[in-house]
Amino acid sequence: MSIEYILNLPAKDQIALGSAASMLLAVALDIFLAYRKLESMEQRLDQCSLLDNYKHLWGNSLRGRLTRLCAVYVAIALPKWNTRRGVINVKQVAEFPRCLKFALHGTALIGLVGAVGAMFFHFSDQPCL
Hints:
This protein is mostly helical. The protein has one domain. The protein has helices spanning 3-7, 11-36, 38-44, 49-58, 62-77, 79-85, 90-94, 98-123. α2 (11-36) packs across α5 (62-77). The longest helix is centred in the N-terminal third of the chain and has 26 residues, at 11-36. The termini are far apart.
């Protein structure tokens, strides 16, 4: 199988393959971040009660680590909302490294692109009412 074969597929099939690949990439990046970077992220946000609650509740399994990674992303992505709730330290969130913020936002964006492509692929054959 060569690249010409993939490029000569119909657009619908290319969208399906691209969305599946981007969702798999997002899951792989999430697992990497959960096992390699999660502890350092949590140490940088050690005064955030949101993360403490998730850490004690979910533990250290794969599901727990991914849930805790999502909690870190929520703390970083929604600082104003979490500040109003009183569950984060604004100074720690502001000092969070840009490279880790970029990794979290990039992973979410790649997964979103894959999900939108999968929805387009799924609903493209549906008849219009």
